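ARCHIVE CARD
Drawer: 12
Card no.: 0347
Subject: one protein chain, sequence and derived structure
Cross-reference: see card 0346
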Amino acid sequence: KALVLLADRRQSWDYLPVGEQWQPNPSRRVSKAEPGESCDAMCHRLSMRCEQREIEFINTCEALRQEFPCEAGCGHQVGQEIPAYVHDRGRDTGQQCLVTDDALPTCAAKCPATTRLCVC
C-alpha cells in the first residue's frame, strides 16, 4: 500500500519542505482595480507587475472584505477574473464578493461587471 498526501503549497507548511512551500511575498501590494480592469493593467498603472501565484493568497472572503462592502455577502463562482466584487447590481450576484476554488485566477482576466482584487 502507498500513502498519498495531497498538500496545498500555500497552507501545508507542516508537511512540505521549505523549497516546496508557497508563501506570500512580504513586499506585495494588494489593491482593487478599476471596474472592468485586469490586474495586469492595474499593476502596470502602479509601475508594478501582477504575480499570478500571489492571487491565490487573496482569493478569500476576508481579503475581499478589506477592500469592498460585500453587501450581498461572499459567494463561490467559477472564473479567472476572481477574486472580485460584482459592482453591477443588475447581475444575480450583484454586490457580492466572489471567490473561486474551481478555476485558477489569471492576471489578464477581466469582466465588465466586476471589480477585481489584485496583488502586485
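Annotation on reverse: The radius of gyration is 15 Å. The beta strands are 30-32, 74-76, 84-86, 97-99, 114-119.
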